[in-house]
Structures are given as C-alpha cells and as structure tokens.
Request: fold
Amino acid sequence: MAKIACAAAILTVALISFVLAQTAGSPSQQGTLMTTVSPDVLKDLAPTGKLRAAINLGNMVLAQKDPATGQPKGITPDLARELGRRLGVPVELVPFDAAGKVFEAVKTGALDVMFLAIEPVRANEIAFTAPYVLIEGVYMVPKDSKIAGVADVDRDGIRIGVSRNSAYDLYLTRTLKHATLVRGDDGIALFVKDKLDAAGGVKQPLVAYAKTNPNVRILDGRFMEIRQAMGTPKGRGDAGARYLGAFVEEMKASGFVADALKRSNQPDAAVAPAS
Reply:
C-alpha cells in the first residue's frame, strides 16, 4: 500500500508539472527562479500588469494582520505572493474584512484572484480551483442553552447570527428548514447584541471567542465543511483558470500549503486532498 501511495503522489506531481508546462515557456531569472508564463495566462490573471489579490482579514484561518508591519500575513498572502513570483508581476494585496465584500468586489473587475469558499452562488461569477484548505462551520450557543447538538439548531423559533454573504450564510440559507438567519457585518457581535439563540461561523474564531467568554459554548460537531479555494473572475479566458488550478495542486503536493498553515499557527485547518 505504501508503494502504491508513493507512486500516486509521484504521478500527481508529474501531472501538475505537465499542465504548468503547457502554459509556460523556458525558465528565466529575476532575482529568484521563475517561469516565463504564456501571454494568455498573463492576460487572464494580471491584465493590468500586476496581480490584484483579495485578502479576507475577516477569516483568521486565511489571513491575519502582522502587528509589526500592519501588512497581511498567513496562507492567502503567501499564496498570492508565490503566484505573483511565478507570473513575474508585482502583487497588490487588497484587504477586506468579510468574504461577502470580496464577492461583491469581484463584479467590479478590480480583482484578479481571490480566496473564497466554493459556493454555487459564487461559482456563477468565479472560476474556482479545487480547494486548498478545509475548515469547519460550527455553532456557538449561550452556556445555559437547551440546544444540545447541531441537529437541534434547525427548529422553529431559533435565531442564528451569521456574517452576511459568508460561505456559511449561503450554505445555511440553502439548507435550513425552520430556524431563522439574522445577518449582519459580524455574526458574533450580532449574536451578543441581540441575544440570539446561536451564532454560526468558522470554527477557529468562534472557539477563540468562547475561550474568553464563559457565558458561551461551542456545540460538538460541524454543520458544514468549508472548502476554501482560489478563484479568478469568469469571462477572462480559460488559460488563467487552468494555470491557477495547476498552481493550487502543486502548492498542496509540495507542502507549501501545510507549511504556510503551520507558520500562521492554524493547526486545526486541514490541507485539502489532491484533486
């Protein structure tokens, strides 16, 4: 079995290298080793001559603000910078405080790549790669709540605070049958202010909040698996989307994603399997 797994890993890396080779020319030097990318890829991913990458600082798993420099750090800035290095173009990190705001900005044409959870509504506007990271959507409830588990949340009269247009808002909008969603810029703040029955969101920030507040608890289990992926606006051409998909697979296979998660202290986030 070990030999089979090893052979599969080697084949995956070989296939990724082949796809990237189809969109690239010969190697060149510009400070560090880079690939000379085809004009079609550059036109799709960096039409202005720079890579404009949306960074969602509202999701601590994906990005954090460096207290020393004030600049974004974490897995998504790392991936954006590495992609820019390979394309041979400058990288502009465009910060946002919520995923929903990133999605709205996609429609303006001001972004080239973004890091969002795969969702059907978003897929109408964005060409997604396979996921690079998997995180969990969980519920937080008041400590004395009678809600015992995830299955108990979707009931008449239950109000759930969520961040508007987040992946978990979109998912719960599709799947809840009885509970009511209450949307705002910050689902946790809404949960506290309006004394709601639950808050739904990414596991890590909810757990962090619960550790500092003895009046709440996190329900065991998850209500969804959040598949974080890279994406580029649809309608620009297929070359950029193909290159981006191969790039993500290489970043997973090479250990880049795992290393970036470790550096940003996100041990609960899992590297997505190879596509």
